[in-house]
Amino acid sequence: MTPNPLVLVGASGWQHPAWRGGLYPDDLPDDWLLSYYNTQFQAVYLPAAVWQGASSATWAQWLYDTRDDFYFVLEPGEAASAKPASPRVLLATPGWEAQHVWWLDEAPDLRALAQRIAQQAATGEPLFVFSRSGNAGLLEQANTLRQVMGY
Question: Residue ranges per domain, the chain?
C-alpha cells in the first residue's frame, strides 16, 4: 500500500532528549511519547536495531498508539528479520529510499526540498522528509513548507 499523503515529515525515532521541555511537555510520561509525536508528525524512521528488537506486543502497541495515516519507515536489517504485517510499516530498501526519502540534516535547503516535492508530486508517490538528528527547527520548517505547498 502506498501512503495517501504526498509529503510526510518525521525524525529518526521519537525519543530525542532535547525535545523534553520543547516539543514534548516536561511532564509527559515516556510511554506517551509516541502518541504525542504522532500528533506533530506523519511518519517515523526506525533504525534496524530499534525495530528488530521490538516484540510483537510492542509493535501492536505502537500501531495502536498512532493514527491510521501515520507510517513507520524501517531501515533494512538482517535478512532473517521480518517487518510487521501492516500497510503502515514500510521497509526502506536502498532503491526505495533513494526515490522516497529526503534527509533534512544532509540537505537542509528548503528551496531544494520544495523542488523535490514538486518533482515527487508529478509521480504521485510519497516523499518522506526525515531528520536523523531530530533537529526540531528543521522539522518545523519542513512541516510548514509541506503545509504551504498544500500537502
Answer: 7-148
